[in-house]
Amino acid sequence: MNKTLKISFSLKNTYRVNSILFSLKQIPLLKRLLPSTLYKVKGLKILANLLSALWEIISIFLGKFLYFYCMIEIVSILYKGIPADDLFLHILFFLTVIGSFSNTHLFNPSKDKYYALILMRMNAKEYTLTNYFYTMIKTLVGFMPFTILFGINRNIPLWLCIALPFCIAGMKLIFVACSLWDYERRGSGYNENQLSKYVWGFIAILLVIAYALPALGYFVPKTITEILFLACIPLGVLSLIKVVNFKEYYAINKELLKTLTCQMDNTTIAQVVKQANEKKISTDASITSKRNGFEFLNELFIKRHKKILWNSTKKISYICTFLIAAVLLILYMSPGIKPVFNKIVMEYLPYFVFIMYAINRGTNFTQALFMNCDHCLLTYSFYKQPNCILKLFQIRLREIMKINAVPALVIGLGLALILFASGGTDNPLNYGVLIVSILSMSLFFSIHYLTIYYLLQPYNAATELKSGTYRIVTSVTYFICFTMMQLRMPVLLFGVMAIVFCALYSIIASFLVYRFAPKTFKIRT
């Protein structure tokens, strides 16, 4: 197994290093400095190997920290009157149940499995078990410091804090063993990347139990969650026997990798996405427009791509409406927690920068634009004239603003209602600022993603994302939005700042697009 683990590490590290080197080559400032024989330069390969090793270490702990901080630490402020230890174990237990079947690793069709099992013909059982046990060790090591850190702060006994990572690993083993038994019975494997609507429904129910019930004063007592958690250790050991003795790992991985194999062998993943999107494009010949010029082109595009552009927005809006209604119901049924929600709305507006970032559809919109429109029209010179670019940019900005504005308006109005229902505010201006600032955040992300699309145009002729700079900009955007979650600022102050910033960004973005897009808005080679 040591040899298998070494080969697995080498394989995974090789394509990570190559990806890092390729990304460096795409950065404009470095592109001219780096040699064409980039992959042969020993110093750069050593640097890329160090970055890869550093990322492997960080990934063990960073994800676990964010998991505890975002899913448990932050939301704990919503619940008053519930013992901290009971609440911690209640939420952690139901999140662990979700993770046991949504993040198994063994049933994840990843590229490293494809390379090892399909291309290199490695021993399926040995490869699968070696990597799975390595993942379990990472789970134990990654969870241990944070179950102790966050658990001790909530009066969880030290022995239980130490045992919790083993309980989490045990629950994952239980689900994997049950899935292997099910495969032997039915001959059909589980794929954690293709969850059915029933599984998603079950996840929604577990999330409601984890977060909504404590707000109403109901939770699973600590004694019961302790018993359930600790029972996972012996059951996990029994499940481990099944995992080790299972003989059909090649068959189950072959079925799991079937879709990925087709993608890797016959076409690129980007082309698969394009083909999937093409099925959603309307072919109704009666669709037309009475407008002229770029307005005609844009209206036809929007009408024919309605499913791609609007379906996810509608779903997000429905979910937001449901959550807001649930909060209003909780405030009605539990008046005692009104001050908590009032404080959240009045001070946590910066937190919604990350939420608006998460629900923004800018990436989907620009991807659809390139795949189904721009990759053809960019071959014509008139399409890259400054006036034409700015005109079409403004038209498209109007459309993406409409798409993102629907859930933003739902959230803005919902926050205003929650503020009113939780005790209101002395300054009525706060209601308007809440609504306008959320819409401004939505507008900012609409402008931002369309602007970097025009200035960095990241796709090649095969509709593959090939820009390292684009990835860096989107990563920095994520980091800034995540950092905003830590800010606490009055609604009026932050809201006005967000509105002013959005207005200034709009002006600057329009100038940059007009000035530089004629040179940058082209098919990447």
Number of helices: 21
Major sheet attributes:
none
Distance between the termini: 42 Å
Oligomer: single chain
- Described by the principal axes of the CA atoms, the overall outline is globular
The overall pLDDT average reads: 80
**Regions with little confidence, pLDDT below 50 for 5+ residues:** 263-269
Order of helices and strands: HHHHHHHHHHHHHHHHHHHHH
Task: Output the structural class.
Answer: mainly alpha
The radius of gyration computed from the alpha-carbon positions, rounded to a whole number of angstroms, is 26 Å
SS strand fraction? under 5%
The count of DSSP E runs of length 2 or more, i.e. the number of strands, is 0
Helix content: over 70%
Give structural attributes.
globular; 21 helices; 525 residues; mainly alpha
Descriptive notes:
- With 525 residues, this protein is an all-alpha fold.
- The protein is built from 21 helices and no strands.
- The longest helix has 36 residues, at 386-421.
- Mean pLDDT is 80; it is low at 263-269.
Short structural summary:
With 525 residues, the protein is an all-alpha fold.
Walk me through the topology.
Blueprint: H1 2-26, H2 28-31, H3 42-73, H4 84-102, H5 111-119, H6 124-152, H7 158-186, H8 197-215, H9 222-245, H10 249-256, H11 258-266, H12 269-278, H13 293-304, H14 306-333, H15 338-347, H16 351-359, H17 362-377, H18 386-421, H19 429-456, H20 468-484, H21 491-520
